[in-house]
Amino acid sequence: LYFDQSKALPEIVLKLCEKWGIANPENYALRSEDNSLYITEKNRLDLKDGAVLKLTLSPAAQVSRFIFSINSSLNIPDRVAALRALRTEVKDITYANQFIKQEGLEILLKICADCFASPNHMDSPILRWALAAYSELLAHGIVQYETIPEDFIRNIISLFSSTMRIDPDPQSPISSALRIAGLYVANNRKGFAMVVSATHCFQALLNYAECSAALFKERALAIINGLIATAPTEMDRIELFGSLEVNNIDNALSSVVFLDTPATPPFAHELYLYQCYSLNRLSQRRAYFFNAQDKDCVQYLRTLRQAIPEIDEESHMIAVKPKGTPASEMLDAWRKLGFSDVEAPEKDFMAPPGVLALEAMAQFAHQDHAGFPHAILGQVNRPEEVCFPFVW
Questions:
Q1: Contact partners, residue 303, CB within 8 Å, separation at least 6
Q2: CA–CA separation, 241 vs 64, rounded Å?
Q3: Is the peptide bond before 353 cis (omega within 30 degrees of 0)?
């Protein structure tokens, strides 16, 4: 049958129903065979020549059928099958909108509440697929987060905070709970207080961020990014970063960056956001210039001075002679490192990026006792014509 793009979809569906003697054409719609998406006025122009379409129940009819089956059956396998199918259906935003319109969210919340009331809810297949479907609905961005019951979110937080269970199945209850919490925190400012005040929640997030399962790391990081973005005050944000630094969250995340297998696009996005948040909080330090009255500035420069190795003039190797070399013998090293005023290197930190650059170099020298001298030695041994100043 030729799909005439100039005709309205209901007209096309009506002709198909008449051709095959199907009653109630208003209960039917066209669906793509390739991706199972419903054909709507918005996406019909995306159809390619040769695309196969099938006549199926409309989203409204499908939702009505689901609601009837889930409300009328107490048989666990039947309910699990219905919820599992729902999780697939709600990936289509057309179906998702209709599901919400017919108050399907309330039904899912009731199912989840009944499961949470059971002591064995962690192993409930009903909860598994109900949460998976709910997370898909939230991912569309069409749910009003202010309408989500806080008790439901508390149960979600408790689910991944109370136990550390890494399930490779992306539809596991904990995986879905992390996804729901991440979306909620990012879109509702109430989420910050709920996560921060929950017992063991923050430590659980750190544990998931450090685990070997990439999906759990991604979803834990999404929650952390949401907390950073929605922190009520700057002090809350500073305390949050302090907790992250104490727990070496950067080391846990850096292991992902250097893996042979690249991060998935969603994970790469979360890593990018975290990097932006981390670097943006240092922006004020770029505008803070070296001040001889600032004890921290003086100490950073002293650390840098002490860490620069003595270079033997003949061998251009690190000298084994004791420290205490006259300052004049360090001038060439300072110069080859890229300082514009070798007798007063602090002047290089009186313009952007200011003391941020000094702090970074001092931290490098303090933390990596082997790598820093190696970097300096490599810089000093380069010919002048290929010199790339270290401090630049």
A1: 362, 365, 366
A2: 47
A3: yes
